[in-house]
Design goal:
By secondary structure, the chain is α+β, with helices and mostly antiparallel strands. Helices cover 34% and strands 28% of the residues. Bound molecules: guanosine-5'-triphosphate and magnesium ion.
Amino acid sequence: MKHVVMGTAGHIDHGKTALVKALTGIDTDRLKEEKDRGITIELGFTYFDLPSGIRLGIIDVPGHERFVKHMVAGVWGIDFVGLIIAADEGVMPQTREHLDICRLLNVKRGLILLTKIDLVDTELLELVQEEVKETVRGTFLEHAPILGVSSVTGQGLPQLIEALDTLSREIEERSSDGLPRLPIDRVFVMKGFGTVVTGTLISGSLSLGEPIQILPSGVEGKIRSLQVYNQPVEKAFAGQRTAVNLQGVEISAIERGEVLVRPQTLTPTRLIDASLDYLPGAPRPLKHRTIQRFHVGTTLTTASIFLLDRDELLPGEEAFVQLRTDAPVVTLPEDRFVIRGSSAIQTLGGGRVLDSHPLKHKRYSASVILDLKVLQSGTAEQALRQHILRSGTGGVEFLDLMNRVTLSPKTIEGILKNMIKKGEVRLIDPEKLKVIDVRQYGQLRETVLRQLKEFHQRYPMKSGLAKEELRTKLPPDLDVRLFQSLLQELIQANDVVLERDKLRSPDHRISTVDEKGLVKRLEEAFQKAGLQPPSPKELAEQWTEPDEEIQAVAEHLVHEGVLVKIRGGMYFHRDHFESLKRRLVDYLGLHKEITAAQFKEITGASRKYTIPLIEYFDQIKVTLRLGEKRVLRTAPQSSGK
Ligand SMILES: Nc1nc2c(ncn2[C@@H]2O[C@H](COP(=O)(O)OP(=O)(O)OP(=O)(O)O)[C@@H](O)[C@H]2O)c(=O)[nH]1
Ligand SMILES: [Mg+2]
């Protein structure tokens, strides 16, 4: 069965609720306060079946200016509006405000219903008709049918039903393959069943038993039972008025204005990029950073409005804005919102969400505006590509993309896989379906090569750059996996050489840049010094060369295996070191043990060198220290004793 939802709209007391009752037999004003005061306060819900078999849901809204926030929540899920104007009063302030709200929320179709025609003569009726036509000129209702009805006499009702049927047949059914989203307009407890939430399922579908999450509070639970128009169903579809009985959710944990979603799909946001339409009737220009009421879905919060390309927005103008909301909200691109004054409460404007998870923008940035233009006028697929490109070297994952475009998860997955296949993006993480645009990847590759080159230029005497050090020179949001695979690729292509944990350009060789012949001079100096070598610092002073450079050459020679570096930054020529080691092993083979004094004698060097040396032999496990003596670590120690 096809479902269509109509919302009422119009000034207080113009006969909205009475007309709904005349059509359906149901009085949607249920509250005692509503009955006592004769006005509608909360949204009312009912339905009836049209002659063609379409089930028409009706959301009856309050006309009182104090309850416009409920009206906004009600309009969010409707397919068309019935704008109600009492024939004896004509167009009034909330007639215009409700019309503005419907327009801002992108209601596309509707009917104009002149009520209480039993109270006026034809002359007055014609006058009102003229006034109404004038009011809706240039809006989506410009060519809408205008019907006169009386809820008291029943006059015009058959024609109304026929008009509703015609319009409903023309309304396209919503697709149910998007993410399920149900903005909650009521929360209550049903005795014996627990928490129930209701709302219009604006996209996707919900099934019995499936897990759900309420955002932004984050509470999770399960669907125990589902009702569409008071009838139990196994599955509810987009466009249907739905009541969800929740298992595992306390009523105190959630509230109206939240959104019911599937777990792990949507994330609340406090930053929104949007286009804002500032109403011609707004009393004054809107200044940058003004705080106003922000209505989206059934949610009401406040937002600071950042004007991205100007300092003030004049009535009747449209501009790109960034909204910073006071409380987290759940929203997606294409969602419509309304801005109302925070002190003098009046509808000021509204607009369309372009990006629900943007970065904080710099104002007056040409590239930001360009981006927003693509999001504003491009297709959803173009927006998707834009987000991937904009995510930069950090890449973007599937879950994030699901929150930024209106495409169904399946469609997003399909597009991503196709882009991977075509080489337009690279896969960083298969599990999260995290990708990076190839242009960003290419830039990253260039950055790595440039960093290496710069490093060699700055430290010509260093053999290369450690991986971790290179990583600190790259963007901080770079995925480790991407970094690893990028290096792998560069090494395989021989654009980078990995040698003993250091990365270098293939053409970088210390010897080729060693114009002063320092490598050779250093080697000779250590060869000559035997077991009492100079420190690099002493050499630097002696030769009046930069300390840093000599140090780098010494490190390079260690790297090349010419020098041995021991604790305390002492370097020995490998020849002398190896020969000392042999003598030490021979001595121990003969005498089994050695004291520090005996070792000093073997070396013929001063304590300054011998203590670090013997400790180094302990460290590299040639010797083992037993009290004041050392023995060979490899020799069987118990045999002789
Ligand atoms: N004579 C006459 N009176 C009507 C008609 N429709 C409504 N009324 C009366 O107008 C008054 C207001 O009607 P409601 O239906 O409550 O008006 P409403 O637009 O729902 O008001 P709010 O919800 O508070 O904005 C009631 O006293 C109705 O009986 C009609 O067609 N003819
Ligand atoms: Mg009412």
